[in-house]
Specification:
2 strands; transferase; acyltransferase; Acyltransferase family protein; acyltransferase activity; Acyl_transf_3_dom
């Protein structure tokens, strides 16, 4: 494998921002059942916003994370793990206080209990596992021959496809999705990422993404039309396979998005680089924002039936609120809580002999 230093450039930081904005939008569609209800005027825009959005974004972000972790052999693993864990814990406490403060402890509201507090933070747990084990994974890939590395990727891919067919969503299968992405990125690194299905230039990657997006959107829209499927449950099952968490096409599209932005050449932008620091805060707090809006009777279960202007208008307001809350939370956390956590983590690592 080649050793190549990776610098965080504005093209990657812009990618982080765009990826994290798609996730609140997708969950706005998902939690309100925009494309799981009977066919109505907002099904098509809901599918349009989701067909190449959050699940694609998840895999693009895992690919981006893998791209840097594959070069991070000597980083202090425990310190990095604890630093990220402290951030996650802080934002979970904020979510708990805000949502329970508004809704109470016995709300009886399915949205609050199953989604907001049940959590769609599926990304977080396997990511934290990856932070603990990536040095050993990197060493494993260095020792594997190209053939055995490819067989490992194939085995994980088969497992991943089976998960997508059965729709069995749990932590183990989430971890499989992460490991598949990580090992595939490691395999592509052997040839300096020159090829992913096709050469990794912008045109090829844009073509892969747009083909996948258009197929997903139009086919999902078609099956949702009245009379196409036996009933709406059958149509929804097709949609789940197309844009579900383990959808193979979404995986391919996610890697295509990553490689498109890798090939994109942007001038360094201090504004983009600063805004990108807030992306995890946007991700971890957007459900809290949605819970607050829902409490005040906005973008709640009636959102699928809003007028066209209301549908798009509230979407923009919600996405902008998520971004603003993420930026403010990041500034406050960095200025006040992060130094306190750092002192505690430094003391712990020193006492335990970690780097």
């Amino acid at each position: 494998m080649t050793q190549e230093k990776k610098e965080r450039q504005s093209n990657f930081e812009l990618l982080r921002i765009l990826l994290m904005l798609t996730i609140p939008v997708y969950h706005l569609m998902l939690y309100n059942g925009v494309f799981y209800m009977d066919y109505h005027k907002n099904v098509a825009p809901g599918l349009f916003l989701s067909s190449g959005g959050a699940i694609t974004a998840d895999y693009a972000f895992i690919a981006l994370t893998s791209y840097f972790l594959l070069e991070s052999k000597d980083r202090p693993v425990i310190r990095r793990f604890l630093t990220f864990g402290a951030q996650v814990l802080t934002l979970y406490v904020i979510r708990f206080i805000v949502i329970r403060g508004l809704w109470g402890f016995h709300s009886g509201n399915w949205f609050v209990e199953d989604y907001i507090l049940g959590g769609a933070w599926w990304f977080v747990a396997p990511y934290m596992v990856l932070l603990l084990v990536y040095p050993w994974l990197n060493r494993l890939m260095e020792r594997l021959s190209r053939g055995w590395h490819g067989m490992l990727c194939l085995g994980l891919a088969i497992w991943f496809v089976i998960n997508g067919m059965t729709l069995q969503m749990n932590f183990v299968n989430d971890l499989v999705a992460f490991l598949l992405t990580y090992f595939v990125m490691g395999y592509l690194r052997r040839d300096d990422y020159r090829r992913w299905i096709f050469p990794t230039g912008k045109k090829w990657m844009a073509g892969i993404y747009m083909t996948g997006f258009l197929f997903t959107f139009f086919y999902a829209w078609y099956v949702k039309m009245p009379g196409v499927m036996a009933n709406d449950d059958a149509a929804n099952l097709v949609v789940k396979h197309l844009i579900g968490k383990y959808a193979p096409l979404q995986f391919v599209m996610g890697l295509a998005v990553f490689f498109f932005f890798r090939a994109l050449r942007l001038r360094q932008s201090p504004l983009i680089n600063r805004m990108a620091k807030s992306v995890f805060f946007v991700f971890l707090l957007h459900e809290t924002v949605m819970g607050v809006y829902w409490y005040f009777g906005k973008i709640n279960g009636q959102y699928p039936y809003y007028s066209v202007a209301g549908f798009w208008g509230w979407l923009v307001v919600y996405a902008a609120t998520c971004l603003l809350v993420g930026i403010v939370a990041q500034k406050l956390y960095t200025g006040f809580l992060a130094p306190l956590w750092k002192r505690g983590i430094d003391a712990f690592c020193k006492k335990c002999g970690f780097q």
